[in-house]
Amino acid sequence: MDIKTIKKQFPIFNNQNIVYLDSAATTQKPSSVIDSISEYYEHFNSNVHRGLYPLATKSTEVYENSREKIAEFINADPDEIIFVSGATEALNGLSRSLILSGLLTKNSQITLTQLDHHSNILPWQKLTNKDIDYITVNNDYVFDLEQIKSIKTDLLAFPLVSNVTGTIFPTDSLNEFKGITVADATQAVGHIKVDVKKMNIDFLVLSGHKMYGPMGIGVLYGKKKLLEKLPPFNVGGGMIKQVEEQDYVPSSGIEKFEAGTPNVADAYALSKAIDFIQQVGIDKIIEHENYLKGIFLKELESMDNISIFHSRQNSTGVISFSHNSVHAHDIAQYLGDNGVCVRAGHHCTQILHKYRLNIPASVRVSFGIYNNRDDVEKCLNLIKASIKLYS
Ligand code: PMP
């Protein structure tokens, strides 16, 4: 499948003439994903798990098949996959549940990284009384393997891929790791191979909308042994074994984490997003991102007064940069006005921008499988024009 054919599967590009270089914020959706939402409501709609009629059985089957698909995709078991609304809900729920379980206490040592997104910082800040440690990155925005190996902490939460520099976290460093590990895989799934067993990850979160799937659906993965020890983070219908006047007994298994009516249509659409990624092939995605990134970086590096925030060693197609005198928002606005969508700001990484990059905002360009060489060249030309205009 060539990129032209792949791009044709994304109706948004047939409906408007834009260059979309903001896939780290959310990817565009192929028609197979969009159509599957209508398909669900037209053919399968019924509440799951409780109905005794064929339509309810079908809806439950669709939902559970989607769980199986995501499990297989990240090399987990289906009973380790909890559907949530997105990574943010997953991290809030997980942190609450870890405290309730006693696996963590208010005095546990939490270690995060300079590259973490606010969604993987604030939930941990909320639960601890102790100062959080932050792992730094070197001048190439790469983590030091030996430093990570030597860390002693109760919980290490990290971005599997940074949403600013594209840095891929060295999960090899976790082989001997003793504490709890939490991977924020929102920027990783659909860009690199994710294998929770190989990567030695205890918990992982992802958002469907960043992997060609719909908004409003995400996943919390947890090792079965650990999930068994965690209490539910939401309570209500669908998650209990028994309810008494003063108390309740939760269901066993992952059902206890999915209170209320789940987002079945979007879980189904997420399974279609996985089909899409698998049809294109992760190797092809990686190769294509590297190709685009190569063209973009070569030109950006030749420009004066630009600082590039990107890991050249081991990274995906997410590149941020700033100009010495032209504000990031001016560059992004100029690009936007001329049909090129990029992001400017702190990208929910104020710690990184304030303490490491020492700037309030950067411009971020992030690639998806639908981008081509023309997109990159148009973006570069407009960056140059905006700098000329505002300098
Ligand atoms: N982590 C990272 C690295 C992200 O880029 C994002 C989304 N910007 C999140 C977490 C939160 O994801 P969501 O908004 O889908 O909950």
Account of the protein in words:
There is one protein chain. This protein has 391 residues and is an alpha/beta fold. Helices cover 38% and strands 15% of the residues. The chain folds into two domains: 3-30 and 281-390, Aspartate Aminotransferase, domain 1 (Alpha-Beta Complex); 32-279, Aspartate Aminotransferase, domain 2. The strands form four sheets. It has a seven-stranded mixed beta sheet with strand order 2-8-7-6-5-3-4, sandwiched between helices. Helix 3 runs antiparallel to helix 9 (264-280) and helix 10 packs parallel to helix 13. 4'-deoxy-4'-aminopyridoxal-5'-phosphate (PMP) binds next to helix 5.
Shape: globular
What is the H-and-E element order? HHEHHEHEHEHEEEEHEEHHEEHEEHEH
For CATH, the homologous superfamily of the largest domain is named as Type I PLP-dependent aspartate aminotransferase-like (Major domain)
Q: Roughly how many Å apart are the termini?
A: 43 Å
User: What is the CATH top level name of the largest domain?
Assistant: Alpha Beta
Average pLDDT score: 96
Portion in helices? 25-40%
How are the strands of the largest sheet arranged? 2-8-7-6-5-3-4
What is the β-strand count?
A: 15
| Strand residue content | 15-25%
Largest sheet: 7 strands, mixed
Spans of at least 5 consecutive residues whose pLDDT stays below 50 are none
The number of helices is 13
What structural class should be given to the helix and strand makeup?
alpha/beta
Number of domains: 2
Keywords: Aminotransferase, Pyridoxal phosphate, Transferase
InterPro entries: Aminotrans_V_dom (IPR000192), Aminotrans_V_PyrdxlP_BS (IPR020578), Cys_dSase_SufS (IPR010970), PyrdxlP-dep_Trfase (IPR015424), PyrdxlP-dep_Trfase_major (IPR015421), PyrdxlP-dep_Trfase_small (IPR015422)
Organism: Candidatus Dojkabacteria bacterium
Cofactor: pyridoxal 5'-phosphate
